[in-house]
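== Sequence entry ==
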Amino acid sequence: DKVLPELIEPYELRAAKLREFLEDVKPSLCYDIVPLADPFGPSVTDPDLQCLVVSEETRRGGEAVNRKRLENGLPELTLHEIQLMKDPVRSQNEEEKISSSSLRQRLLGTLLQPPRQDPALPLRPYVIGLTGGTGSGKTSIAKLLGHLGAFVIDADKLGHAVYVPGGPAYQPVVAAFGAEILNKDGTINRKVLGAKVFGNQERLKSLTDIVWPEIAQMVKERVREADAQGK
């Protein structure tokens, strides 16, 4: 549930950096660096531990550790609370403290590693999925990519195209939801259709089971078209 977990460095690299830091601060220090497979790790099983360093945010976690230790027949740990450092360069939407989540958000837009070569995928066309909520900037980014030479496939437009008379989903949708969804000119009234399906999970699934495969097929056709154009 971390923010942008894809940008968290591998455990081995993080452990190596921590080891380098500890050796730089105090070469004579004895320590163990332990990967955590659960929220508690060795803190609730190691009888030799005496102290747990917490912050104001993690004190409750420290108290949970002590409850677990008592359940396991071990003495409580001394909880040493440290203050969090404020981030002097944080933006308005970032946490006040120095936060790895904020640091990862700042990495967006930078290339951390080259694209992975997957032998199961063709070298071209290179397909990018652009998603996001309303107002998140999809249209602007799509235009930018288009100016850079990308072949842009607008799934929203394809979603409208499958409904038009003669479109691949037209007859199945009319058959499933009745002629009352049609305008006088024979086109599907999307508002009437929407009123039938939204709020009704079974009907909505029936609609998406018809429409989404057809949109996916149209996307694949557009990808082949892009490939033919050398995009």
Remarks:
- The chain has eight helices and two strands.
- Strands lie at 51-55, 78-82.
- The longest strand covers residues 51-55.
